């Protein structure tokens, strides 16, 4: 009997079988389905560390998916290379009828998908993508005149006004896989070593989104010693948890947590409408700031040896775990840009290298917020005092002692800059560059 046509589902930022919009759409057709993941060398070759934990996380998740698919009679196809070249090989080998995927909103991904889609269409192969990693995307939450929001509060108000419970309903994608998978033998997926990477030794936390945890989220999230964060950002970043599930868990339980989901989509919308923010300030005037960019001070910040205990604790937590508490992220970012007068892009790049949950939209938005150059940003004259922040949010020094046990000893370094002097310098520098804004 002649086999039904074969179509691919291309996994990217959606590493799950459950509640997957694009996979569900493909399963609505009668095609045999093969799931595909491409280790994109345009991305891998830019990574600086052979023990980059994000590659390890992705690889482990792909192994889990492959095991589940093999139990159903299929397998996950894992390739390494530039996507356009990979599809050239796959089309020559298997001639799929269509390639389905979920939307990706980052500038590189948009360019990649444009090229892949155009080439596939030239070969007579459909390329279709779907909304999956957000509740609202692109132009779905805009002003009455169709222009994008550039301030969070009105965006959030409109997001909530437009939201309907059905938008958080799960797609029954995993339940429909049985009997639909392509069963031809394929090569086993490459090992981590074959990809050129090694284990990081870091721990990957499961999300903490139980009703009990979320009900306490608003009162615990700002206290780094308690670490009331959900640890969900890693899983939303790589799609091991669906945003719809996160919304279902939080709605009616924690409005503060729902607000964090809205912030995530706000920054994605900013990146979509203003892709220049990936390289330049959202507010062009802030590109005139003459950053000091002292490499010695930057290295002290990276190593957590600034002489400011809360800043140092945050940086050491990041270097050791790939995670940093959200409150502390704001403090260390403010310190780098205001106290040290170092370009926010240096800090953004360091976070991009170290954070397990690195997401371009959120990372860029947070750094530009700290520098004052972004949308909905803190005024440039707001400068966090790291010592007062420590007294307010870690009054017993529990978090600080965890990461900087020597902070009250003679071996701990003296502050690399004096707070009042640094604050005054930052304000004067910004004011001159911005022409008195």
Explain this structure to me?
There is one protein chain. With 437 residues, the chain is an alpha/beta fold. The protein folds into three domains: 6-132, 3-Layer(aba) Sandwich (Rossmann fold); 133-168 and 207-273, Serine Threonine Protein Phosphatase 5, Tetratricopeptide repeat (Alpha Horseshoe), CATH 1.25.40.80; 277-431, DNA Cyclobutane Dipyrimidine Photolyase, subunit A, domain 3 (Orthogonal Bundle), CATH 1.10.579.10. It has helices spanning 21-27, 41-44, 53-71, 83-94, 107-122, 152-162, 211-215, 217-220, 233-238, 243-250, 255-273, 295-303, 309-321, 326-339, 344-354, 360-371, 386-393, 398-403, 419-434, and strands at 6-11, 32-40, 76-81, 98-102, 126-130. It has a five-stranded parallel β-sheet, with helices on both faces. Helix 5 (107-122) links the parallel strand 4 and strand 5 (126-130). The radius of gyration is 23 Å and the shape is globular. The mean pLDDT is 95.
- Sheet with most strands: strand arrangement: 3-2-1-4-5
Number of helices: 19
Low-confidence stretches: none
Based on the structure given, which CATH architecture of the largest domain is correct? Orthogonal Bundle
CATH topology of the largest domain: DNA Cyclobutane Dipyrimidine Photolyase, subunit A, domain 3
Shape label: globular
CATH superfamily of the largest domain: DNA Cyclobutane Dipyrimidine Photolyase, subunit A, domain 3
> What's the helical proportion of residues?
40-55%
What's the CATH first level of the largest domain? Mainly Alpha
Distance between the termini: 74 Å
Q: Tally of extended strands?
A: 5
In total, the number of domains comes to: 3
Please identify the structural class as seen in this structure: alpha/beta
Report the average pLDDT across residues.
95
* Cα-based radius of gyration, to the nearest Å: 23 Å
Proportion of strand residues: 5-15%
């Amino acid at each position: 009997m002649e086999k039904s046509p074969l179509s691919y589902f291309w996994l990217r930022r959606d590493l799950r079988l459950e509640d997957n919009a694009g996979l569900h759409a493909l399963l609505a057709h009668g095609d045999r389905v093969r799931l595909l993941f491409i280790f994109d060398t345009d991305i891998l070759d830019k990574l600086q560390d052979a023990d980059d934990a994000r590659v390890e996380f992705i690889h482990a998740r792909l192994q889990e998916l492959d095991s589940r698919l093999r139990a159903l009679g299929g397998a996950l196809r894992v390739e390494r290379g530039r996507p356009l070249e990979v599809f050239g090989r796959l089309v020559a080998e298997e001639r799929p009828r269509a390639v389905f995927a979920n939307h990706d909103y980052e500038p590189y991904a948009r360019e990649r998908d444009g090229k892949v889609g155009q080439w596939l269409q030239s070969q007579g192969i459909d390329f279709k993508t779907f909304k999956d990693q957000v509740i609202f995307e692109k132009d779905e939450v805009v002003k009455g005149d169709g222009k994008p929001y550039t301030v969070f509060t009105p965006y959030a108000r409109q997001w909530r006004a437009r939201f309907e419970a059905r938008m958080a309903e799960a797609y029954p994608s995993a339940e429909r896989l049985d009997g639909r998978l392509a069963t031809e033998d394929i090569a086993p997926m490459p090992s981590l070593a074959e990809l050129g990477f090694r284990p990081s030794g870091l721990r990957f936390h499961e999300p903490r989104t139980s009703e009990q945890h979320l009900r306490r989220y608003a009162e615990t999230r700002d206290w780094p010693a308690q670490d009331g964060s959900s640890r969900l950002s890693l899983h939303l970043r790589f799609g091991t948890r669906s945003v719809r599930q996160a919304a279902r868990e939080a709605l009616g339980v924690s409005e503060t947590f729902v607000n964090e989901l809205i912030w995530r989509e706000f920054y994605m919308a900013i990146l979509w409408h203003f892709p220049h923010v990936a390289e330049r300030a959202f507010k062009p005037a802030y590109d005139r700031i003459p950053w000091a960019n002292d490499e010695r001070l930057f290295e002290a910040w990276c190593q957590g040896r600034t002489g400011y205990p809360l800043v140092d604790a945050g940086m050491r937590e990041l270097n050791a775990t790939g995670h940093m508490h959200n409150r502390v992220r704001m403090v260390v970012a403010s310190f780098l840009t205001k106290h040290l007068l170092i370009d926010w892009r240096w800090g953004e790049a360091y976070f991009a290298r170290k954070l397990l949950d690195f997401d371009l939209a959120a990372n860029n938005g947070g750094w530009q917020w700290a520098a004052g150059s972004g949308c909905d940003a803190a005024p440039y004259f707001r400068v966090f005092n790291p010592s007062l922040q420590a007294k307010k949010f870690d009054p017993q020094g529990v978090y600080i002692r965890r990461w900087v046990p020597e902070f009250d000893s003679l071996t701990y370094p003296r502050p690399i800059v004096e707070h009042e002097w640094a604050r005054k310098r930052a304000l004067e520098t910004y004011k001159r560059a911005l022409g008195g804004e």
